[in-house]
Amino acid sequence: QIFNQHNAEAPSLEQAFHRMAQTEPNLDHDVSWLLLPSHWAKAVVALISFLCFANSYDGDFVFDDSEAIINNKDLRAETPLGDLWYHDFWGSKLSSNTSHKSYRPLTVLTFRINYLFAGGFYPVGFHVINIMLHCTISVLMVDVFSILLGGLQFSNKGRRLNLAPKSSLLAALLFAVHPVHTECVAGIVGRADLLCALFFLLSFLGYCKAFRENKEGHTFSVFWVLVSVILGAIAMLCKEQGITILGLNAVFDALVINKINLLELIQKLLHKDKSLENAGLLRKGLLFRITLLMSGGASILYIRWRIMGTGPPAFTEVDNPASFADSLFVRAINYNYYYSLNAWLLLCPWWLCFDWSMGCIPLIKSVSDWRIIALAALWFCLIGLICQALCSEDSHKRRILTLGLGFLIIPFLPASNLFFRVGFVIAERVIYLPSIGYCILFTYGFSLLSKQAKKKKILAVAVLGILLINVMRCALRSSQWRSEEQLFRSALSVCPLNAKVHYNVGKNLADKGNQSAAIKYYREAVRLNPKYVHAMNNLGNILKERNELHEAEELLSLAVQIHPETRAQFGLENSLRRFEEAEQSYWTAIKHRKKYPDCYYNLGRLYADLNRHIDALNAWRNATVLKPEHSLAWNNMIILLDNTGNLAQAEAVGREALELIPNDHSLMFSLANVLGKSQKYKESEALFLKAIKANPNAASYHGNLAVLYHRWGNLDLAKKHYEVSLKLDPMAPGTKENYNLLRRKLEQLQKKGG
């Protein structure tokens, strides 16, 4: 309701509040919760949302962050800014057949700004921005929920009134501390969802501003409607879900501004009743505003379609198996099962996983599958809520339930598989916006229970307990997102059937040098998904290095049969001394797939074995251009230049590598060796100590530091680190001989001193 009292004396805020509160039931009347002034409520929400995710600020780049940030050329200054408008989220051309068509140029632009201000790939700045965005969104939620739960009311001075301060605070707290949001906040790639949500909410609040009476007495402002459309477009340029705010604004206009009774309207439409104007459909301005929203939305979608091209994104069966099922029944029943799992994650966000694909959720193929119960429960609840939203005689109840369902369902539609195939089974990040609807329904349910409960304080304590549990769950989940090792291992108990989880755990172990443990997880990944080429590749390469060539050849040959174009990645011919075949295979693979850093890396190893040093360096350089964090390629370049006496060039390459991967202890070690040979002892010592701090159990690190001290003349420190090295690895090559030489020298010095 909008007040138009131009000639009357302006009432006080309290009087206006009292009069408006009498127009419909007040949700806060039955809610036993904190009543705080608006600024204090927002401060509390900001603080608690910050506490939930603060421990993720110094996390690493994990999971998809590597592809979207580290390997994304669009972040670097040498890439023209204009290219961002023609590339997808991962830096590939939208016109490419391999593009996922995820068009989020504004999100990539914020990554680029982060990168330029930090002067490199330092994750802290990226994480801090994500945390700040979530805090800002949570604060905005106080205003959004005050409108959705209390209605849109203005005083005569044009100030919007919060008619549900307690309910809006509770709903905002529920949103701020929901553990399902951890992926968006602690995972840097979640920036897309956060930015989308920010402009999504600003669009909604802008639309609400359109109904604040202006000086001319007009009841709505075309300017603010257009601003809302523009903000919706910006939200979509951050992530595709953003476009749904235009539909929600239309729903809000119909239900709250025009107070349309949907059931009554449907009945009149079915009976072709000519009194539709009385139902509110043709009230002044509604059709005009909806036309503006629809025209704006259609224009935005058309422009995006022209930029993206007509081809759909290419996904595989392992990404979304239900969408590849031949039977319409199987597809439908599994899509609905996925919806029920998303709903369960909102209700009970305890089992969270970074990836739900690759067999994590087996397909339902028969009605005898007990999981059908989940579908029945979901639709029983939804139908019950929809009936109440349509048929209840309480207009206040109808409005809140319809808005709650609208905010729950409409933002989820792009991820529902209804309009196009998506590249995931379940993605926790896509529930960020739908959780607004969940918070509305939860808060309304709490108010109904409070109305019936005799001991309201007990109910309030129970809700407070839920909030505290969620805060602790957020903190725990944020800590798991700090590193890939913790993130991947946390998924083993949630999705033990997910081959990708086992593959990622194995890869993480292999990268740390623990090949024996990695083999176990790679074998399990291949067992769960016998066509998992990447797992076969990595397992085959480890077995090849352990000289178990027969099994390696079986695995890699099978991988070649599944994906012939990836043959060169495996380097099997190299290990079997078939050098010419190996080189030919590598170049064939590069011809078919130009962005192939591992192929260039293996090609470099082949050239190094053949003493073709220039070719090896060029191949490894190509690998680092395609994948700047390719530590093995950088290390091999440094070691080869060091071994061939090119110390100055080795030092330059080492410094370049550490700028890109500042926390890689193996690069610190390699560069420290070069600096030691160049007699830059102090700088070499600092790098050795830093490498040892990162990896204290590496015998070679202590052994080479001891050699540095030995050359430098710091004999006591040399003796100490030789002993540590021998303790860690008694068979360390050369260390025992150097230690014995040092002992004899120390004995000679003692004799001279005596």
From TrEMBL:
Domain of life: Eukaryota
Domain DUF1736: 311-383
EC numbers, comma separated: 2.4.1.109
UniProt subcellular location: Endoplasmic reticulum; Membrane
One Gene Ontology biological process: endoplasmic reticulum unfolded protein response
Transmembrane intervals: 106-125, 188-208, 220-237, 243-266, 286-305, 372-391, 403-424, 430-449, 458-476
Repeat positions for TPR: 499-532, 533-566, 597-630, 699-732
Key word Endoplasmic reticulum present: yes
Leading EC class: transferase
GO cellular component terms listed in the entry, alphabetical order: endoplasmic reticulum; membrane
Similarity comment: family membership: Belongs to the TMTC family.
The protein's name in its UniProt record: dolichyl-phosphate-mannose--protein mannosyltransferase
Organism: Sakesphorus luctuosus
